[in-house]
Each structure stands twice: as structure tokens, then as C-alpha cells.
Amino acid sequence: MNGELFDEVPLLETIPMADADVRFMRRFYGPALAAQHMRVLLDEIAWRQETIVLWGQQHLQPRLSAWYGDAGSRYSYSGITLEPHPWTATLLRIKGDIEQVTGHRFNSVLLNLYRNERDGMGWHSDDEAELGPEPVIASLSLGEARIFHFRHRTRKTGKPISLTLIDGSLLVMAGTTQKFWRHAVDKESVSRDARINLTFRHIVPAR
Ligand SMILES: O=C(O)CCC(=O)C(=O)O
Ligand SMILES: [Fe+2]
């Protein structure tokens, strides 16, 4: 852990993980502001259930999603390309708050809406070329708490790491986190309310 990225930010607690730089802030937003943002985003975001292609087969993703950002921050993964919608006032406000706390700039955000316990996200790393070699990804959670799992790609001896991403919390992944670790949000068997997750990213323009 080199600790260079956020030395000036004591509010972000470091999660001890080998080959990674992961910080967590339990209360980035208090409950009132978190609830207000959640209400607005549920209403104003152009939520879609995307189809992705895996091994030549089409699947509906088990969640809704949407891509917002600067024009030109086009993003491709698993056979789909997302053109960003223009920023809304609420998204710009959240982006500004996160930039202030992390000291990093972002030009796009992927929003995910987990409607209930049957929605989730499979194991992956956010390591697409347009994110650059050591991306900083800031992930804000609103609404129902869900468990976020990390698993190292090659060290089989280390324990998997799980974090409960509560309403209003901020998780920041930087350095070699994406290179060495995968992460996932499992489906659950007990009833869960809606959760929105926003992952702010910096897309490096293609070519
Ligand atoms: O919902 C989450 O906390 C994770 C989202 C995520 O991993 C992603 O958007 O790449
Ligand atoms: Fe991710």
C-alpha cells in the first residue's frame, strides 16, 4: 500500500488489502441527503435493462443501468457500447462532492439500480482500456445496503474480503486494485429494497 493518492484525506479509511488501494467512507452523505438523491435519481435517470453478450449468448443484465458523462466519454464492455447522457444537476453536484473529498476528477458515471435481492453484479474488474492502467473509481451507494465482495485474481491463500456498502457510503478503488482483484455484488435470498450505486470514472478518450 503506497498511500500517496489520498494522504490529505483523513476521512477515507484504508481497507487493508495486498496489491490494492481501497478506501472507504461510511458516511459520505447523511441519511437525509442520501434519501433525497436516491429519490431524484430513481425518477430522473434513463434506467434501462441492457442486453450483454457473453460467449456469443445474449443475456439481460440482472439490474438496470445508465451511463452519464461528458460527451465523448464512450464506454464499451461485454459487447455493448454506452453513449453517455448529459450530466444532470444532481449528478454534477454529487460528482463535485466526490471530487472534493478524493482530490480526483471524473468525466463519467455508470449508475446501477438493484431493484431487489434478485439483482446483482457478477465477478469482474473494471479494467477496460479506456479507463487507463490504474483507474480511480469512486463508488457511492444509496438505499438498501448490499455486500460487495473482493477476490484476488491469483493469490488463492488470502481471505476474500467483503464490505457492506451502506446508504450514503463511498468506496474508492485506485492503484492496482483492478489489476489484481475482481469484485461482485451477489444476488441474495432474503428480501432487499432498491439500491442505487454510482461509479464515477475517468475515461481516457479513444485514440
Ligand atoms: O454496485 C456496486 O457496488 C458495484 C458496481 C460495479 O462494480 C460497477 O459498476 O462496476
Ligand atoms: Fe465494478
From TrEMBL:
Ranges annotated as spanning the membrane: none
Pfam families: 2OG-FeII_Oxy_2
Cofactor: Fe(2+)
Gene Ontology MF, one: catalytic activity, acting on DNA
UniProt signal peptide: none
Record flagged with keyword Metal-binding: yes
Domain Fe2OG dioxygenase: 105-204
Keywords for the protein's UniProt record, in alphabetical order: Dioxygenase, DNA damage, DNA repair, Iron, Magnesium, Metal-binding, Oxidoreductase
Name this protein carries in UniProt: Alpha-ketoglutarate-dependent dioxygenase AlkB
Species in which this protein is naturally found: Noviherbaspirillum cavernae
